[in-house]
Amino acid sequence: MKVVDDFLSYEVFSRLEHEICGDTFPWYFNDHMTRRGDDKYQFVHNIFNVRYGGVMSGMFGLFEPVIRELGVKELDRIKINLNPRTFFHRKGHWHIDNNPNDPHQHTKTAILYLNTTNGWTEFKNHGKVKNKMNRIALFDSQLIHRKVTCTDEQRRIIVNINYQ
What we know:
Distance between the termini: 15 Å
Order of helices and strands: EHEEEHEEEEEEE
Radius of gyration: 15 Å
Low-confidence stretches: none
């Protein structure tokens, strides 16, 4: 795993943050956080998913600098997650981002943090990465991890990118 602070230039990150964290960005209710029936919820915006034909949002162009910076050869998915503040930290289910039975199997995951909160991403047997604006966590898609909500800000927003 690799963690990089100030991953994007100020200009590129500011544009992403302004668009996504603004009050006109379209969020969609998702009745689960990790898997259906987990009795948790979040708001999402799907940008790209190869399984559903590729580009799913008019916001895709915002992510072209991120894709270039990551050196993406093959893009699988870009999804933005918004988790509202919770009274106590709520942990998602342990999971991996890679399904070995999927023909669109990817090997890398990047989590880009869009705001600073006291939430984090926890990695089984590998510690945790705290939410910090413009920080990115890069790791193998087989690494078991889970999200943890924040209690100090209105929302925790991350971008999840799966690629090769």
